Amino acid sequence: MSHADRIPAANLSLPAAALVVGILAWWSVVVLFGVPAYLLPTPAAVAARLAGRPGLYAWNAATTLRTILAGGTAGVLAGFGAAAVVVHSTVLRRALSPYLVTARVLPKIAVAPLLLVYLGTGAGTALAFVALVAFFPTFVSSASGLRETPDEYLDLLRSVEAGPLRAFLFVRIPAALPSVFAGLKQSAALAVVGAVVAEWILTDAGLGYLVLVGSENVQTDAVLAAVVVLFAEGMAVYGAVAAVENWVSWR
After folding, report:
1. What does the DSSP 8-state code read for residue 168?
2. In 110-219, which ranges are continuous DSSP H helix?
């Protein structure tokens, strides 16, 4: 087996080994220190909770995933579109960029009650919140990447009288891909967080709602079961973005 073949195997085996070690450490702490189940149940208790009601967790996982994908996609598209517009308009860039960048640090949880007032509860409001959360990382990273296109590339296109659209599609976007994907990965991670917050405040379904209900009823095993599924879902979403980035980088 060549070195190149061993790298992907290591990329999978090391995280798997870390996961096993983490589960064993969790189990050991509970058993050795006699931690009460209402504080920290064993991994077996969490697995039993998942196995006991798989349909409940599967349905709510699907609900959360729809919110993540739909809201996250809307936010990412809006963020990239806004970045493209701002980059091509000096007036808009100077007028809006300071506010858009500053708004990135605004705690989005503070906006959720306003969305509740304006839009009411429900899945649509949750999607709007997730889109808002996903918008800013993509906008800031994409705008930065699109502005940093090497001047010699643009000069070459001008020399062959290529229009702004061709320059954007064939030079600016390819040159900005590392920055764009950096923003996409941040947006993917924050979309998961946004979906959970939205389910706490705006809806009565999803993994975030299960976490809330479990905590209110002091069912720590139910909370951890939902968290485990949410963790797997978040890893899958982030991994999908990273896989697309790797695929694009190899083309």
Report:
1. I
2. 112-119, 123-147, 151-159, 164-167, 173-201, 207-216
114's tokens: 């306003």
Alpha-carbon distance of 69 to 118, in angstroms, equals: 23
What single letter denotes the amino acid at residue 134?
A
Residue 211 belongs to what domain range?
Answer: 40-249
Which letter does DSSP use for residue 224 in this model?
H
Q: Which of 92, 74, 72 is nearest to 83 (CA)?
A: 92
In a domain, 101, yes or no: yes
For the entire predicted model, the pTM comes to 0.83
47's tokens: 């697995």
Q: What is the DSSP letter of 105?
A: T
Q: Domain containing 128 — which CATH number?
A: 1.10.3720.10
Q: What is the pLDDT of residues 120-175, one digit of tens each?
A: 777 888 898 999 999 989 998 898 888 877 666 666 666 656 666 777 777 778 88
pLDDT in tens, 13-58: 887 888 899 899 999 998 988 888 888 898 999 999 999 888 999 9
Task: Quote the radius of gyration of the chain (alpha carbons, Å).
Answer: 22
Q: What share of the chain is helix, strand, coil (3-state, %, to 5)?
A: 85, 0, 15
Query: SS3 for 10?
Result: helix
Q: Which residue has the tokens 């800013």?
A: 136
In total, how many domains does the chain have? 1
